[in-house]
Amino acid sequence: MINVVLIGSGKVAYHLHKAMLGASGVALKQIIARSSQALLDFEASVPTADLNGTIQEADVYLLAVSDRAIAEVARQLPKRDALYVHTSGATDMEALGVHQRKGVLYPLQTFSKERPVDFHSVPLILEAGCDKDLSLLEDLSNALSNNVLKLTPAQRKQLHLAAVFANNFTNHMVALGEEICLNQGVQKELLRPLLRETWAKLETLSAAQAQTGPARRGDRRTLEAHLRWLNDPEKEELYKLISHSIANTYDQEL
Amino acid sequence: MINVVLIGSGKVAYHLHKAMLGASGVALKQIIARSSQALLDFEASVPTADLNGTIQEADVYLLAVSDRAIAEVARQLPKRDALYVHTSGATDMEALGVHQRKGVLYPLQTFSKERPVDFHSVPLILEAGCDKDLSLLEDLSNALSNNVLKLTPAQRKQLHLAAVFANNFTNHMVALGEEICLNQGVQKELLRPLLRETWAKLETLSAAQAQTGPARRGDRRTLEAHLRWLNDPEKEELYKLISHSIANTYDQEL
User: Fold this and answer.
1) Separation of first and last alpha carbons in chain B
2) Which of A47, A123, B118, B129 measures 20 to 30 Å from A190, CA to CA?
3) Chain A residues inside the 8 Å CB shell of B69
4) For domain A2-151, is the CATH number 3.60.20.30?
5) What confidence tens digit (pLDDT) does each residue in A199-216 have?
6) Closest Cα of chain A to B53: distance in Å?
C-alpha cells in the first residue's frame, strides 16, 4: 500500500484525489489545503488540514499546486524520509528544495472541476532523483493510469509546450472564428459541423495529413481577399504569420 | 422535381452528387467534368459529359469547381433560362458572368473523398439575384440539408474566413504540437487524450469560456520559459503573437 498526502485544492488536485480514491494499492491519507472552503467539492471522507496543521506520515507527498507555489509549499512541508513530488510540466524537480527524495508526476491533460476525466487514459510523465524512487512513483502512477512514461526533464518541458499549441492555441483559433461570426451577427453554432469534422479527421490522420485551406494549397488570391476582409490589425497579423507557417511546412510559395 | 446538372469532379462535387442522389425532389441529370477519369469514385448511374459535349437541360447548373475556375467554366456553359450557382465561400456571385440568373450555395464544411459526411447537418449558405431564384435554391437546399441559411455576401465571406481560423488554423496548431513531440523523439499520440478533451469541452462551452493556459492567466514566467525552450524562430514568433492575442482577448497583461 502506498500512502499519499496530497497538497492542493485546484483542478489537478481534485482529479488526482478522485483517481487515488478509486485506485487499489493507494491510500490517500490526507489532503492539505490553505482553506477547507477550497475543498468543498472534494470527497468528505478524506481527512484535511492546512500547512500549519498536523501533517500525517506518508510515502509520497504529492504537491498539486500552481508552479509558482511549489518552492514555498515544499519549504513548509515537514522533512521526512518520503518522496516529494510535484505535478508541473514546466517546473524543474529541484524546485522541491531541500527534500532529499524528489520526483515529478506530470499529468498531460486539461482539467476542469465540472467535467469528469477518464484518468486511466491520461499520460503521466514521471521523473525521480534515483531508481528506487522512480520505481515507487511508477507503482503509484500505474495504479492511476494505463499511460505512464519516464521522460527526461527536457522532453517533459517540450511536451508541456506542445500541449500549449495543441490545446490553448487551437482553442484560441476556434475563439477567433467564433468572434468573426458574432461580429457579423451570425450564430457561432454554424461552425459546429465544421469543428466536429476537424476533430474527427484528426482521429485517423496526422494533423499534417489533414491540413487543408488556402495557405496549404498556395492560393494567394484567397489569402489576399481574406486579408482585405479582416478589419482587425491583430487578426491580420495572426492570419499572415500562421499562413506563412503553414506554407513553409508544406513547401508552398505565398 | 428540380433538375440539376452538376459541374465538377472534386471533393465538394463528390459529396454534392451523393447528397443529391439521396434527396427526394431532386434529379441529378448529368455530371460535367474535364475527364471521365476524375469521376471514377462517383456513382456510375449518372450520365456524364465534358464541357465540349452535349450538356442537358436543367433548372439549376451547379458549379462545384475551384474558385479560380468558376468564371471560365461559367463562360463555357450554354446560355439557357436556368439558375447558375457556384459553391464558393469566397467568390462573388458575379463571377458567374453573363448568365442572367445567378446564385450561390456555399456548404460550410471540410470535405474529403475518403470520409462520409452527414450532409443533412452541413450549413448551406444561400444567395441569389432575385426572390424567385432564391426560393428555387431554397427548395433544392432544403432537400439536401436541415441547416439552410440566407446570408449577405459579406456575411458569407466572413464565415469563410471564420472557417479558416476554426479549421485550417486549429489544425495547424495541432500539427505544430505534434512536430514538437516528434522533434523530441516523443510519440505524438501522447497528445491524443488532451486533444479529445479539448474538443469535448467545446461541445458544451464557447471557446472563450474554455480558454486556459499561461497567456489566459497572465503567467509571464511560464511564457518566458516556453520561449527559451523553443529553438525555432518561426514558432517563437507564433507563440508570442498568439499569446498576446489571447491576453488581449481576456484583458490580461503580459
Assistant:
1) 60
2) B129
3) none
4) no
5) 999 999 999 999 999 999
6) 30
Of the candidates B211, B231, B249, B196, the residue with the CA atom closest to the CA atom of residue A161: B231
Measured distance CA(B17)–CA(A110) in Å, rounded: 41
| Beta-carbon separation of B190 and A123 below 8 A | yes
CATH architecture of A155-249: Orthogonal Bundle (1.10)
Contacts of A163 in chain B (CB under 8 A): 177, 191, 194
pTM, rounded to two decimals? 0.95
- Give the H or E element holding residue B62: strand B60-63
Q: What is the DSSP letter of B189?
A: G
CB contact (8 A) between residue B186 and residue A159: yes
C-alpha cell at A157: 518541458
3-class DSSP assignment, residue A50 = coil
Angle at B133 between CA B15 and CA B143, to 5 degrees: 35
Could you list the beta-strand ranges (E) of chain A. Answer: 2-7, 26-32, 48-49, 60-63, 83-86, 101-107, 124-128, 148-150
Q: Which of A186, A194, A241 sits opposite B241 (nearest CB)?
A: A241
**DSSP output for B88-134:** -SSS-GGGGTT-SEEEEEEE-S---TTS---GGGS-EEEEESSHHHH
A184 with B158: Cβ contact below 8 A: yes
Contact A170 B174 (CB under 8 A): yes
Report the alpha-carbon angle B12-A193-A240, nearest 5.
Answer: 75
Neighbours of A79 (CB within 10 A): 11
Chain A contact set for B242 (CB, 8 A): 169, 172, 238
Binned average pLDDT, 10 residues per bin, chain A of 254 residues: 97 97 97 88 92 96 96 97 98 97 98 92 98 98 98 97 98 98 96 97 94 95 96 95 97 90
Helix (H, G, I), strand (E, B) or coil at B7: strand
Beta carbon pairs, A and B, within 8 Å: 282
Give the integer Cα–Cα distance in Å for B163 and A240. Answer: 15
Domain boundaries, chain A: 2-151, 155-249
